[in-house]
TrEMBL record:
Pfam families: Isochorismatase. It comes from Massilia aurea. InterPro entries: Isochorismatase-like_dom, Isochorismatase-like_hydrls, Isochorismatase-like_sf. One of its GO terms (molecular function) is hydrolase activity. Residues 6-177 form the Isochorismatase-like domain. This is Nicotinamidase-related amidase. Keywords: Hydrolase.
Amino acid sequence: MTQPPALIIIDMQQGMQSATLPPRNNPTAEGMIARLHAAWRVAGYPIVSVRHISRSPASVFAPGQSGVEFQPRFHPMVHEHVVEKNVPDAFIHTGLERWLHARGITHLVIVGVSTNNSVEATARTAGNLGFSTIVVSDATFTFDKTDFGGTHRSAEDVHLMALANLHGEYAEVMSSDDVLRRYAMGIA
């Protein structure tokens, strides 16, 4: 590994705290994301904050809505890279791949929301593009969903299936403790 891994924080926006969203899993995810975020900052490793900008004017993620703003604890610093996306995948029409290659970054650690949507889409593309990718299981979360057959699935079931879809094929799924150990950042 020539360059340190980039921490990719996906869609940690105020709209993700909306009371209108379905029930979610992993209520400690924000704490784990904050822990990794702080460790990356202390180490001086690259951080990319991804923000979803909806094309639908009715969305809480539409420009001009408070939901589009980063949650205060995840607000990027001036020198940290921000990617704005209009689809779940943070690589599509954003310049993220070019930004990473220009800096020689080949290893990515992905956290955020939703495990089965933006996290999974971004991790699949990262793996397909040849990046060594880790998805952090306890620093991601998702929401209840009804499957195509009409069966209600809990957020935890959706989360675990999304992680299973990724692990070993597109990414390695690890806990935040294991990520901190791997990159010798200590356990905060």
